[in-house]
Amino acid sequence: MGSGINEIALIALIAFAIFFIPRMRAGKRQEVTFVKPAKKTLAVHGRVRLAIFLSILWIIAAAFFFEPWNKNLITFCYIGAGPVFLGWGLSWVVAGYKKYRR
């Protein structure tokens, strides 16, 4: 019977040595705080909202006028959707140049 108590005491001593002795020897630990990086939000200002609205309105008006579903697809692409894609593409390129120029 004595050997069972000795085994339990030995296991408890090993657990104590593994978990508590390194903490006692290290002294006071510095707490590590993790700071979450700020979330980047897409800021859409008034001019950009107006440009998006006018782009959608232009494409819808051109679709009603040229009726691309009735064999006028090329004309719709050149006059309706083409200028919108070209304008947004150019604004994207200009924004990239401004970003890296700073």
Low-confidence stretches: none
Q: How would you classify the helix and strand content by structural class?
A: mainly alpha
Order of helices and strands: HHHH
- The shape, in one word, is elongated
Radius of gyration: 35 Å
Describe the structure.
The protein has 102 residues and is mainly alpha-helical. The protein has a domain at 46-101. Helix content is 73%, strand content 0%. The chain has helices spanning 2-19, 21-26, 46-66, 73-101. Helix 3 runs antiparallel to helix 4. The radius of gyration is 35 Å and the shape is elongated.
Key features?
4 helices, mainly alpha, 102 residues
Question: Can you give me a brief rundown of this structure?
Answer:
The protein is 73% helix and 0% strand. By secondary structure, the protein is mostly helical. The protein is elongated and about 95 Å long.
SSE arrangement:
Elements lengths: L1 H18 L1 H6 L19 H21 L6 H29 L1
Helix pairs in contact: 3-4
